[in-house]
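[09:14] KT: can someone run the structure on this one? pasting the chain below
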Amino acid sequence: MTLRSDVAELLAAAGIVDVDVDDAVEDEHIRSFAYRRVISATASLPRRDRDRAIVTTILRDPNELGSKTAVVALVDGVATKVTGPAEFRQWSAELLPEIDRLQTERYREFIRRRIHDWLFYLSIRAGHESTPAELAGVTDWMQRVLAEESTSPAVLALLAGSGSSRKIRNIAKSRAGKRELRTE
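[09:31] RB: done, structure tokens below
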């Protein structure tokens, strides 16, 4: 496969006709934008059966930063649509062999951490009561997402007491206080 055939195949499969394949091949910024559009279309689909092939194709791109960014966008998009942690765990396990093909270790690790973060988020959403040690195992980004989005008093209390930064602890304290006022 060549970069041109990979880009053409991805665009065609996603139904994107307004991106010039030759321009995308020549310019990594155009290609990266095209990948984000492909990922957006892919993540919105109800079926996940083509995701591994799409990731495989994107990861063949010589621009690993652009590839990593696209894969992270897919991980984020799918995580917000799955029914729970078991479904996401199974889906992400199918991608890990492809992710391991990235040459840059920090990119592989970033994607693995993002998957771990979403598994934590989904388990919390499913009712798992986390410990401070488990909370310490997720990134500051995920702690901030939880502090800003969680409606669970237990999660907000945990973040207010054990969040990794003052900002996260303050967001959680503020939101926990507002929730207490609404429930009284």
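[09:33] KT: thanks! The longest helix spans residues 105-125.
[09:34] RB: yep, looked fine to me
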